[in-house]
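Case study 2.
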Amino acid sequence: MISEWTVTRRADTPHAAIELCRGHWPTPNEIVRLEQWPTLSFDMNSAPEAKYGCYRDVVQADFLPMGDLIFQPGGTRLHSRGSGGTQMFLRIGFRPDAFAGPDRLVPDHRDPEVQRRMMHVDPPAMLAFTRRILAELKAPDMGSAFLLDSLTLMLAADLGAFLSGQRGEVVQRTGGLAPWQLRRLADRIDDPAAPSPSITELAALLRITPRHLARAYRASTGGTLSDAVGLARQARAERMVRSGNRSMAEIAALLGFSGTSSFSTAFRRRAGCSPQQFARRLH
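Prediction:
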């Protein structure tokens, strides 16, 4: 069947159309998705069931395992198989005129290695950008339009490099974490109602040792868990600064910093400016 869904939220930027979607399909299901624009899709479901896909426009394309973050070139049909049911997902459609010629996002989707990368876009930084885009779409505030455009541009740059094999490629290795474990970690790290977790807490969540968790996380993602926690904490910090409802001392305390000085130093390291400068740019 051809996939259909309902758009629950949408935002348009100069470089992309961003949609939060809800779909419901039979269980199990087999669908074909047609995208006119180059599109990055983020599956928000937490179910650990396996799913597979292939590109119908490629002769003798194999069904490959699909990750939570997948890319589909414009004008192609993606044939997927999964458990079905209700699905929430984020679609980021990159405007073709903004990424043409040398700036195109995918070199040649007929290449089997490129297909494998498109089915499982796994660099941690790209997942972090996607989650920040999702957070802005669900709770927009002052400065969201500027931030969404900046995030989609950074995401597109990393995506193009990843698909061409220039950087950031990560494959699932022996000794890594299972997809459901990675999702559980991401849900806890991105929980806006809880303080930033420690590595010990995250290890206890999966019932493994902190040392095992650190090795397995790097084997699965190519990045460190401390970087993932830091990116999530930075995203929360920027949202609090943009809202203007709390003092810097309050924000620092809520995020677990010892004081405003350590908070400002950490903020500047990731954002390239102090929290105060970041807030002034929004006005």
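Residues 6-163 form a domain with the Jelly Rolls fold (CATH 2.60.120.10).
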